[in-house]
Structure formats: structure tokens, C-alpha cells
């Protein structure tokens, strides 16, 4: 099961050693430990651009992991892979599933907003202005929620909300 790291560097090696130590001393079930190993291997594969391998590991981790908080991060990472591959609808599905389990995940909210903003730009290019406005409105809602949770992040989104006049909720001004 453990993944052989192709790009071993000091930080990766240190993380792996520390994670293995923590896994041995924590009072967790065998399934939880296995789930973490698959999750760690998925992150390693994902960081190397091995998306198919990462997805296999994440899906296996999902079958073993029971903790909703931990599952939310697995789902979020699956969403990242689909977004990277341009499969935005699938990415949105996984980001929403992650948010159902963990409502305090500003990075998922931001990524949803980025996808809606991108879809708004594409619609505007095709002169579908109603669709474009709808997508931009959705992006604004998700960016406002992300900024509410992480006020010092997403500065570009904050600027976009201000310049478009969409900064109206959560007293973000």
C-alpha cells in the first residue's frame, strides 16, 4: 500500500516519517490508519500530477474513513483533481459534498466561486448575458461566504466584488 515517492525531498520524507510515527501512537482503528495512508498517498500522487493514482487512493480512503471532517478533505481533494482536469461539473459535486460535511471550508467555497466566475466569462463570450449574470451572481455568493470565513484571504475576489458592486453581504466592506 505505501507509495514509493519519486520526488523525495527533505520535507516529504520528514512528513512521511512523522505521519508514520503519529499513526503508530494514536489510538485509532486499523481502518482509520489505512484511510490516512491512502489519503497521504493520494496527496503525494496528486502533488506529482499523477491524478489517476491520486483518485484511486482518495476513493479507497473514502471507503475506509468514517469521520465526516476527514471525509470532507478527501472529497475536496477529489474536487481539486476534477477541476484541474477541466471537469467543472464533477468538481462542483465534490466541493458541495465536502461542504455538506464541513461548512467551514473556505477553500471549497472559493473554488466553487472560481468555477462559476469562469462559467460566467464563457457565457459572456458567447453573448449569453442572462447566464453570465447568473453565474457571476453565484460566484459572488460563494466568494462572500469564503471571505466571511477567511477575511484575510481571497484579496482578488474581494476586489472583484467591490469593483462589480456585488460586495453586499456579511459586512465585508
Automatic annotation (TrEMBL):
Q: TPR repeats at which positions?
A: 35-68, 35-68, 72-105, 72-105, 120-153
Protein localization: Plastid, Chloroplast thylakoid membrane
Q: Which InterPro entries match?
A: PSI_Ycf3_assembly, TPR-like_helical_dom_sf, TPR_rpt
- Which keywords does UniProt give here? Chloroplast, Membrane, Photosynthesis, Plastid, Repeat, Thylakoid, TPR repeat
Annotated GO biological process: photosynthesis
> What kind of membrane protein is this, topologically?
Peripheral membrane protein
UniProt keyword annotation of Isomerase present: no
Q: What is its main location?
A: plastid
Q: Which Pfam families match?
A: TPR_1
Q: One GO cellular component term, please give it.
A: chloroplast thylakoid membrane
Is Plastid one of the keywords UniProt gives this record?
yes
Record family assignment: Belongs to the Ycf3 family.
Stated role: Seems to be required for the assembly of the photosystem I complex.
State what protein this is by name.
Photosystem I assembly protein Ycf3
- Species name for this entry? Pterocladia lucida (Red seaweed)
Amino acid at each position: 500500500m505505501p507509495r514509493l515517492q519519486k520526488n523525495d525531498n527533505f520535507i516529504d520524507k520528514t512528513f512521511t516519517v512523522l505521519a508514520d510515527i503519529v499513526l503508530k501512537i494514536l489510538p485509532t482503528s486499523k481502518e482509520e490508519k489505512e484511510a490516512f495512508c491512502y489519503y497521504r498517498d493520494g496527496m503525494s500522487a496528486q502533488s506529482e500530477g499523477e491524478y489517476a493514482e491520486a483518485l484511486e487512493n482518495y476513493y479507497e480512503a473514502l471507503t475506509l474513513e468514517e469521520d465526516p471532517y476527514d471525509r470532507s478533505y478527501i472529497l475536496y481533494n477529489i474536487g481539486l483533481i476534477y477541476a484541474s482536469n477541466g471537469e467543472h461539473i464533477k468538481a462542483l459535486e465534490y466541493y458541495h459534498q465536502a461542504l455538506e460535511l464541513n461548512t467551514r471550508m473556505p477553500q471549497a467555497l472559493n473554488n466553487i466561486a472560481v468555477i462559476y466566475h469562469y462559467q460566467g466569462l464563457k457565457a459572456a463570450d458567447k453573448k449569453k448575458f442572462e447566464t453570465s449574470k447568473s453565474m457571476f451572481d453565484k460566484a459572488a455568493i460563494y466568494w462572500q461566504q469564503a471571505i466571511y470565513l477567511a477575511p484575510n484571504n481571497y484579496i482578488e475576489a474581494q476586489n472583484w466584488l467591490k469593483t462589480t458592486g456585488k460586495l453586499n453581504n456579511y459586512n465585508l466592506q
